[in-house]
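Minimal example, chain plus adenosine-5'-diphosphate.
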Amino acid sequence: MFKGIGFLMRYTWKFEKRYIIYQILLQILTALVPLSDIIIPKYIIDELTGARRIDVLLGWAGLLLAINLLGNWLISFFSGNSFVLQGKVFTKFQTMMADQLSRSDFARLEDPKFLDTKAKAEKFLYANGQGFGAVMTSAFNIFGKLFTFIGIVAVISTLNIWVVLGFVALVLLNAFYESKVRKQATVWDLEKAPIERKTSYYIDLVENFAFGKEIRIYGIKDWIVAKVHEHLQESDRFYARQTRLMNKARYLSVFTNFVLKGITYGYLIFSVIKDFIGIGDFTMYMSALMNFSDAMRSLMESLLNIRQFGGYYNALKDYMDVPQRMYEGKRLAAPAGPYELRFEDVSFRYPGQENDVLKHISITLHSGEKLSVVGENGAGKTTFVKLLCRLYDPTEGRITLNGVDIREIDYDRYMTLIGSVFQDYKLLAFTVKENVSFQHSDEEDDGRIHDILVHSGLARRLETLPHDIHSHIYRTFAEDGFEPSGGEGQKIALARAVYKNAPIMILDEPTAALDPRAEYEIYQNFSELTEGKTTVFISHRMSSSKFCDHIALFKNGEIAEYGTHDELMAQGGDYKELFDMQAQFYL
Ligand code: ADP
């Protein structure tokens, strides 16, 4: 039950010690001020109904006011500052979650089970919509309320211990029932997480500009809105069920409260009439008993909160414990170049799929060699390069870099060796420069980045941009941002790979969106672009294979033909057929 709290406290202490210290002081003060309001009035009333000494009365009243003034001022100070610090802690937790996600294996991002676990983990951190810190606040509350509680019990015990015990029994009964109710509510809530994830996907579909074209042209707005509606209704049914159950616990609490008040008034009035206690005592016990049930209820509430969120904590733990396979292995330093890559009897099957997409691939890429990979759609070409980039690891066999299994090489260091342009490259809503160099450049690099972009065929476009390479891509964050055409986008993606200047280059249809002139220019520069680099080049433009050293023709996940352009043409197989098919349009 307290493991989740332990986790939060450990990290919060690491992130922001002051937050914890302020919270403890805050709790002590919030317990102390009401206690003085319970006890001091008794002495004032006793004095008023007795000797009526002005100095004594002034003394008590002064003390009460001073505690209130100073106490409340400090409470405001600590709670305001705690709020700011809590924001800081929250940011750190969010960063930690983002870091965890970005380090998780690529394959997990398409694994629905992983995504559901993530959604549940977030329920813990955000206290299921109650906001981050609700769990921690509950933990601190326990501490503070315990303090108030002990004070009140001490006061009431001087009256009658049986009254105290009766009160405790009633409140416990209430808490026991509520805890059962909440346990069920948590179970339902976790079941709801996948539904909420689906709903937010659909809402994103409607809101996201990128889907705008399909939604309008195919007239699917109503269809999608209906789906959103359907999922929202499903969540509503969960809420309704939860509320009905919670209400039962609330009704019980209203009833026990009624009994508590009845006993309090009855017993205290009886005691005054019988002269067991005076009017001052009556006031003190009255407010002590009223505060008692409030304090005990809020203590229980906090305990129950923690218990309830403990259920979500397991999901967070599962999420944090998901193995990051890419970061396992021996994490060796990358061997020194030049680089020879070798696939040794590699087979691969996508997670959760039934068939191998690559079957027993064995091929060597010598250092500096350019390999063209061709084949029909679905033959496995992209999967082949994805394995090379370690987006996935082989199901069988191994890939080596200068004889070392790439799984044994430190993942981040291996990544520094690879430059790539994928057909589904992504540009970010940052500046052109940032899209080319990311964080790896400073002002001195501007000239180089500009040259690379010019070289990639963007000279004329750059001239029309408002801030040259500092212009924003997309209008998400800048009004004068620009929307690159498919070809322009691809040129920027290409510039990115050139800028990285990595020894291994992966080009997956890097010219698919380019116009004939731009493509021609890229092909003209191809040898310069890939000079000295071990290169894999996927293209449906068969003529481009001519300037590669070898060609591998993939068919149904296997390498069906392998050789130079001339060898494969002479062989008269699939390669020749595909080549001739495309060539006939140019004759
Ligand atoms: P190519 O690049 O030759 O067109 P791919 O390597 O992209 O072919 O795809 C090979 C096969 O693997 C296809 O049948 C495709 O449906 C399947 N595939 C690709 N990506 C995934 C994935 N993420 N999950 C499951 N199957 C996939």
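The chain has a mean pLDDT of 87. The pocket of adenosine-5'-diphosphate is lined by residues 110, 350, 353, 357, 375, 377-383 (CB under 6 Å).
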